[in-house]
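User: C-alpha cells in, sequence out, please.
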C-alpha cells in the first residue's frame, strides 16, 4: 500500500512540475481574489464576537512563498506553498481565534472561520478552476 501511495505522490509531483510557469502566474490573481473574498466574509461573520476588534484585524490573506503569522489558525506559522494562498485568523497578539471559533466551557462558540469556508467553497473553487482552464488554453 505504501508503495502505491509513493508512486501516486511522485506522479502528482511530476504533473505539478510540468505546469508552465506562465500558467502558474496567470492563476495568482484568481487565488488572491478568492482569498480576499473569503477573508472578507470571515471578518463579517466575526463581527458578532467583536470585543476589541483585534480578532477581526488578525484575519489575513498570505500569498504563496510568504509565512503566515505566528500563532495563526489553522496551523500556526508556515510557508504558503506555490499556487496557493492561505487565509488565517490570529497572530502573536491574538492567540484565541480557535477559542472564539469552537467556544470554551465558559464561553459559547461564535464560529466565523469554517462557516465562511463552507459558504464560499463552491464559488471560489469554480473561479480558480476557470482561471486555471483559461490559463492553460492561453498557454497552448
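Assistant: Sequence out:
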Amino acid at each position: 500500500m505504501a508503495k502505491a501511495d509513493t508512486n501516486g505522490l511522485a506522479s502528482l509531483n511530476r504533473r505539478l512540475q510540468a505546469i508552465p510557469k506562465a500558467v502558474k502566474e496567470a492563476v495568482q490573481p484568481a487565488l488572491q481574489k478568492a482569498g480576499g473574498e473569503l477573508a472578507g466574509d470571515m471578518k463579517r461573520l466575526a463581527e458578532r464576537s467583536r470585543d476589541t476588534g483585534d480578532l477581526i484585524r488578525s484575519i489575513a490573506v498570505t500569498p504563496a512563498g510568504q509565512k503566515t503569522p505566528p500563532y495563526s489558525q489553522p496551523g500556526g506559522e508556515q510557508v504558503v506553498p506555490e499556487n496557493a494562498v492561505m487565509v488565517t485568523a490570529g497572530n502573536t497578539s491574538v492567540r484565541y481565534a480557535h477559542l472564539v471559533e469552537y467556544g470554551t466551557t465558559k464561553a459559547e462558540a461564535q464560529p466565523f472561520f469554517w462557516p465562511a469556508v463552507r459558504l464560499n467553497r463552491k464559488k471560489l473553487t469554480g473561479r480558480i478552476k476557470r482561471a486555471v482552464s483559461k490559463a492553460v488554453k492561453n498557454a497552448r
